[in-house]
Specification:
Elements: E1 3-7, E2 11-16, E3 23-30, E4 37-41, E5 48-51, E6 57-59, E7 65-66, H1 81-90, E8 95-99, H2 112-121, E9 123-129, E10 132-135, E11 139-143, E12 150-155, E13 160-165, H3 171-174, E14 179-183, H4 189-192, E15 199-201, H5 202-210, E16 223-225, H6 241-255, E17 261-268, H7 272-284, E18 289-292
Parallel strand pairs: 4-8, 10-17, 13-17, 15-16
Antiparallel strand pairs: 1-9, 2-3, 3-8, 4-5, 6-7, 10-18, 11-12, 12-17, 13-14
């Protein structure tokens, strides 16, 4: 049987929120089978639990933000996508995330630090079947037209493969690969995707900060690009780091569906909003998906039983 996974012990991190600039402490704790991933705002007079679900997403501007029932006026946790991506990459099904502010710390701007935290706590197999969200028919969402067109699609696939194409019409970005494909079954999430950092353009910083965004951003936790080049002294971690970060985000955004996907995902210029719209379109059509388990690991897609070693 392909089993659910949680942590063996708790682990902690302290950092700042990318958008809020606030100091925040994160504690990752084991959770029982079928709990899913639950964020807990422990800084409030009465702690508030926010289970991660597609309909708990209340804001998708620059990040994925959740609140109980998706209520925009309720306590929230923003920028959950990098931690969610790490959980998906390591096959973590059940987890409590205690947090002391309304934003997950950005750490180094990628999901590599979260991968390290999860692995340092140890990963434990649980006596319950791992549930997958299997896509049965193609679902697509589109926005805009012409140069403003963006779209995202899920198609049936025995595994989980992601393809992302970027188009920023910017000399520094255009000099990097514009399309990346990654197969989760390769077991190489940690090596090939996790280290890809978030990125931003200097021309946008003033506007974003006037809106209370990117207050904690710096070259320590983001790729910073001016009108012509990458400003970080160390350059890029991968030659296709910008496109790979979009895949990292998509993995995290789509894991908000509550189960790992069995599907082929393709997107052109998509982002957090379109990813959530795609997830909602899929789950609104009961004929488009089913929940499956694998009693026999050999019948699971190649690489999925080894997706994350259990220490």
């Amino acid at each position: 049987m392909l089993q659910q996974r949680t942590l063996k012990s708790l682990t902690r991190a302290v950092g700042v929120g990318l958008h809020s600039g606030q100091k925040v402490e994160l504690t990752l704790r084991p959770a029982a089978p079928d709990t899913g991933i639950v964020f807990r705002r422990v800084d409030l007079p009465q702690p508030v639990d926010i289970p991660v679900r597609f309909d708990s997403v209340c804001d998708t501007r620059m990040a994925s933000t959740i609140s109980p029932g998706g209520d925009p006026g309720a306590p929230k946790v923003q920028t959950i996508e990098h931690l969610m991506s790490a959980c998906a990459g390591l096959g973590i099904d059940n987890l409590y995330v205690d947090i002391t502010a309304d934003e997950v710390p950005i750490l180094d701007g990628s999901s590599a630090s979260f991968v390290f935290l999860l692995q340092s706590a140890g990963i434990e197999l649980q006596k319950a079947p791992k549930r997958f969200l299997r896509v049965k028919k193609t679902v697509e969402v589109r926005e805009g037209e012409g140069r403003r067109l963006l779209w995202a699609r899920l198609e049936p696939y025995h595994g989980y493969k992601l393809t992302f194409q970027i188009d920023f019409n910017h000399p520094a970005v255009d000099a990097t690969p514009q399309e990346v494909t990654f197969d989760m079954g390769s077991g190489r999430y940690k090596q090939e995707i996790a280290r890809a950092r978030t990125f931003g353009f200097t021309k946008d910083v003033e506007v974003m900060r006037s809106r209370g965004l990117t207050l904690g951003g710096s070259m320590d936790n983001a790729i910073v690009i001016d009108d012509y080049r990458v400003l970080n002294s160390e350059g890029l971690r991968y030659d296709d780091e910008i496109a790979k970060h979009k895949i990292l985000d998509a993995i995290g955004d789509l894991y908000i569906g509550g189960h790992p996907l069995l599907a082929a995902y393709t997107s052109f210029k998509g982002g957090h909003a379109l990813n959530n719209k795609l997830l909602r379109a899929l789950l609104a059509d009961e004929s488009a998906y089913e929940i499956v388990t694998f009693d026999d690991e050999k019948k699971a897609p190649a690489g999925f039983a080894e997706l994350a070693p259990a220490w």
